[in-house]
Known about the structure:
Oligomer: heterodimer
Low-confidence stretches of chain B: none
CATH superfamily of the largest domain in chain B: NADH-ubiquinone/plastoquinone oxidoreductase chain 6, subunit NuoJ
Largest sheet of chain B: none
Number of helices of chain A: 3
Structural class of chain A: mainly alpha
Number of helices of chain B: 6
Strand content of chain B: under 5%
Distance between the termini of chain A: 53 Å
Amino acid sequence: MPIQYYIFFCLTLFSIGVVGVLTRRNAIIVFMCIELMLNAVNLLLVAFSKMHSGAALAASPTSTAGIDAQIFVFFIMVVAAAEVSVGLAIIVMMYRNTHSTDINFLNRLKN
Amino acid sequence: MSTLEILFFALSAFAIVSAIMVLVSKNPIHSVLWLILVFFAISGHYILLNAQFLAIVNIIVYAGAIMVLFLFVIMLMNVKSDNEPQKKLLTKFVGVLSGGSLLILLIALVKQTAQLQGKQVLMKEGTIGLIHPLGKALFNDYVLPFEISSVLFLSAMVGAVIIGKK
């Protein structure tokens, strides 16, 4: 499978996430779109890791090139899990103060 | 077309349609359910790439834990779909336009990159995605980041409790 197909697919998912962040006003949906963008990047990292692994395996059959990217994806998932727990706590606190998850309420942060 | 190509395109179309449905559904609960479908499609892509460990971790962590947390928060808040404020039509149009421009720009860039021409992704072969080599790398070369991530989890846990307690 050419690497371009994976890049195009992941770019599409990423752009859908960007459009969601720009067009929706519910903070939870915005947060979910950020998760979507993270996942698109994860899939692209794994695709690149398999691309390098395929090139290295053709040179030497015992090569483990490309394994760093998969470890990296694992750490991205770890950080995303921590980020979601704190982010959802912030959204819950925002809902308790304003009784809404509208991100336009957050413009009072500027005062 | 080979079976791999059919699977690749079917999973990609499924993921993209589900991702668009995340945006257009009015009810946040439906959005979460569509997002779970996106994550399952991405796990299918990981399996196609023989990254079995990441496929399972993606299902357990994302579709299992994170999405359940989202559903839990949405049901706790009892967010109604009809009273959700909408952005102005012009803002929506500009948002879609800028996202589409970003997509077209990046695709044009990738299309003319010479380094990526003719590069192939190794499908369904190779052992680097299996749990044995990954575990060896994780606990030999990456043991310090692994331990630091446990500190990150502890601080996230403390932070979430402190923020939620107020």
